Amino acid sequence: MPRLGQKYEIEIETISKPKAEYQTDEYFELDLPVAPAVMVGEEIVVEGTDVSEDKLETAICQHLGIPTPEPRKKKIRERLFK
Question: String of b and e for 19-32 (b: at least 16 CB within 10 Å)?
Fold first, then answer.
């Protein structure tokens, strides 16, 4: 993510807490996504799982109102180990 933050001049904030803190009533009252999660602006890109770099880059571009890049071709290793 930091690399995409530099590429698109967008602030990247990473929040890491012990798992127990994400399961409190106070956390649920904040109406934030289930961890692990990725948000771009107010949009939840993914929650409860990892996100592909292509999907994250597309969400960033849409947020910034710029054209989305062409999806990169997957390497053989990525295709075999989805």
Answer: eeebeeeeeeeeee
- C-alpha–C-alpha distance, residues 75 and 71, integer Å: 12
21-66: pLDDT as tens digits: 888 888 888 888 888 889 999 899 999 888 888 899 999 999 999 9
For the entire predicted model, the pTM comes to 0.72
CA gap 74, 35 in Å, rounded: 26
Token pair, residue 33, equals: 């996504």
Contacts of 41 (CB under 8 A, 6+ apart): 63
Q: Which residue has the tokens 């960033």?
A: 60
Q: Distance (Å, rounded) from C-alpha 37 to C-alpha 30?
A: 14
DSSP 30: T
Cα–Cα distance, 3 to 5 (Å, whole number): 5
